[in-house]
Design goal:
The structure is a homodimer. By secondary structure, chain A is an alpha/beta fold. Chain A contains 14 helices and 17 strands. In chain A, strands 7, 8, 9, 10, 11, 12, 13, 14, 15, 16 and 17 form an eleven-stranded mixed beta sheet that branches. Chain A has a six-stranded parallel beta sheet with strand order 3-2-1-4-5-6, with helices on both faces. Chains A and B meet through helix 2, helix 6, strand 12 and helix 12 of A and helix 2, helix 6, strand 12 and helix 12 of B.
Chain lengths: 427, 427
């Protein structure tokens, strides 16, 4: 029996998916026994040139029609954004249609509501492609590791920013040059805000925390810092100190609560994440029994993402044909989110200081008063003005901020030129 | 509704699983909504001390009783070996009970038969723990990547041999010393044959090829070489040439057929597999759309393996409670297996030769006559006797063997001291 597929959106991922379903339908049927048939594809403009050819009448600009169409058994949402995607997905689930989506922004914003609707309707809502593009990560987290008490998920989940940071580190470019290069090569959008601000990674951090801990943090409670303030000089100093700077998404259990955050961090050379270059994504999952698991691969792009979507479509079609209401894999609930001010990290602090006796003592005193102890200090340059590179031990965010605030009032400190968090050596 | 679990075997993995089901049952219930209840555990000896405490009457030495017991809904097989595990698993499937197993030897030997029995009975047969221990690899291959035409799976799938090779490489130990160390530390068994001969990796290669390509190669048709012949000297020469020696399991499409093989190989330093140390496992999956995916983590051990088994138990219980017969995820069939003699690889060849003019010309001629071209030559030492390190270009196994056979008959060649395949630089 053929499964009728309706696809919302035919951009990079949607167009690739349509082509794959047409070109490789026989291969999929051979491997899985499923006959997947593209019955409607909803697009914004019917006039735009497409990379695929479909029979008359399949392309439509009336997305809502797909939900009501009795010939459509399963909805794939690859239009992106929260609106109108969210209401369409909700309507599809309420109509009893399984939904596969690649939309991290939507899942991050409305995940609990959509998961509840899927549970109530007894149909799958799958979103493997929402995090890590072609890397299988959602399914391992929510299925294979369902019996593991995961302690931390740590990853490079945005290829655009990793490409830019790699280019700044390896070619010595400044941020603006590296961004322009990424745009030229198609790794960054014309408006790169969602990527460089960390918002894209924050959406993924919410989803990872939800799957790993069952606690829905929500994007607004993810502490989020992007990469636009990173200076090439600090990447060079980081290298001298044995670190590479990466934009990390972190979801971890702290006490009885959960923290999710996105910020640039110095990663020790020996850590596997330090060697993840260019647009590649990599995610670590840590738990008391499995130890450390690493997943790496292409984090974006039409082809890898379409593979992840297709895997979900196959899975949803299998369940659909079984005629059963399989219990959902994912349960999420609001939970205790740890205030970021209480989260302890190490900091790298670059100071421009007067080079004279007693300076370090006054700086160390400022850290000490704030309850932050210093792990290492290194002076670059001598003379009228010197650069001090400090790395602290772990201390709560609030203490680190208080220390840096105090430094700004010291007469011997000309400038707090940069602060970047340092990922612990302990993996 | 509680799901009654019967466990066959209470060794390292089984004992850990029983403890986890008892200690973390509430956590699992909270996360998944499933009440998993250990109802019978079959062991060989009732008198042996156990790491877990069970109520009277749960431990039994009559494994067959679990299959017939109406209180047992789901069978976990962690006894290992093919006999009696195979007949017990088959009987359980025929009795309509889902089976979760960690037994790579059994799946490799009787996979198609067991998968067919599961399909016929409409119950799941899950074996995530059979390859890669705690690393989710079976599910990503058979589900997330079901829509990808995978071209190659390449991995370090045996932690014992990787531990031994790492120790030989980094501490300069010889094979016997490194094996003894691995045995002392519990990384190798008293009888290490299954690991060091490559048989364990060959079972996993069969399973990986079956899932990736739908073609069941079977362990007897996996070309298998172990590590006991590896000399420490060649690990040092490998490092000079920019390589690390690893025991690789390879499953790949070649033309219209499939090849599965296990052998030591020199891996370029820049390849991510080169940096996988100790007992860690790592698996690459390559396809035209997803590019390269890397999965790494603990490949063995009670705790990680029990996590993978538990994930399967949760999945099987979910399907069981849905009351449906969900179509199997895996379809395998006999297929065209490429004769290993036709598989092209590069070779590293270490020759002890007379150090006089014309020697290289005669050696190069022997390679040329066999249809093998030489990529690089390096001479170590001078004088009466010299060591030549040759690396060839890709050539079929049969040609490489013919070339080396011819070398053995040259008067200028004192000894063909070692041959090791070289993994292509192209990833």
């Amino acid at each position: 029996m053929a499964v009728g597929i309706g696809i919302l959106g035919a951009g990079t991922v949607g167009g690739t998916l349509v082509r794959r379903l047409i070109d490789e339908g026989a291969v999929v049927a051979d491997r899985t026994g499923l006959d997947l048939e593209v019955r409607r594809v909803a697009v914004r403009s019917l006039d735009k040139a497409r990379s695929f050819a479909l029979p008359e009448g399949i392309l439509t600009d009336a997305a809502g029609d797909l939900i009501a169409d009795p010939d459509i058994d399963l909805i794939v949402e690859v239009m992106g954004g929260t609106d109108p995607a969210g209401d369409l997905v909700l309507a599809a689930l309420r109509a009893g249609k399984p939904v596969v989506t690649a939309n991290k922004e939507l899942i991050a914003a409305r995940g609990p509501e959509l998961i509840a609707a899927a549970t109530e309707a007894g149909v799958p809502l799958l979103f493997e492609a929402a995090v890590g593009g072609g890397i299988p990560i959602i399914r391992p987290l929510s299925e294979t590791l369902a019996g593991e008490r995961i302690t931390r998920v740590l990853g490079i989940v945005n290829g655009t920013t990793n490409f830019i940071l790699t280019s700044m580190t390896e070619a010595g470019r400044d941020y603006a040059e590296a961004l322009a290069e990424a745009q030229d090569l198609g790794y960054a959008e014309a408006d790169p805000t969602a990527d460089v601000s960390g918002a894209d990674a924050a959406a993924k951090a919410t989803i990872l925390a939800g799957l790993a801990f069952g606690v829905w943090v929500g994007p607004s409670r993810v502490h989020t810092e992007g990469i636009s303030g990173i200076a090439t000089a600090d990447l060079e100093f980081a290298a001298e100190l044995g670190y590479t700077v990466k934009l990390l998404a972190v979801a971890e259990r702290i006490g009885g609560g959960v923290s999710a955050r996105v910020h640039p961090a110095m990663v020790p050379f020996a850590h596997p994440l330090a060697s993840i270059r260019g647009a590649t994504n990599a995610i670590f999952i840590e738990g008391p029994s499995v130890g450390e698991l690493l997943f790496a691969g292409p984090g974006a792009g039409g082809e890898p993402t379409a593979t992840a979507v297709l895997g979900d479509v196959i899975d949803a079609a299998r369940e659909l044909l079984s005629g059963s209401q399989v219990a959902p894999r994912i349960r999420v609930a609001p939970g205790d989110v740890v205030d970021f001010a209480e989260v302890a990290t190490k900091w790298y602090v670059r100071l421009e200081v007067a080079d004279r006796p007693g300076v370090l003592a006054r700086i160390a005193a400022a850290f000490g008063t704030a309850g932050v102890s210093i792990k290492s200090v290194r002076q670059e340059g001598r003379g009228e003005s010197a650069t001090l590179l400090l790395v602290t031990h772990d201390a709560p965010e609030a203490h680190q901020r208080a220390a840096v605030g105090a430094l700004r009032h010291l007469s011997v400190v000309r400038e707090v030129a940069a602060t970047i968090r340092v990922q612990s050596e302990e993996r």
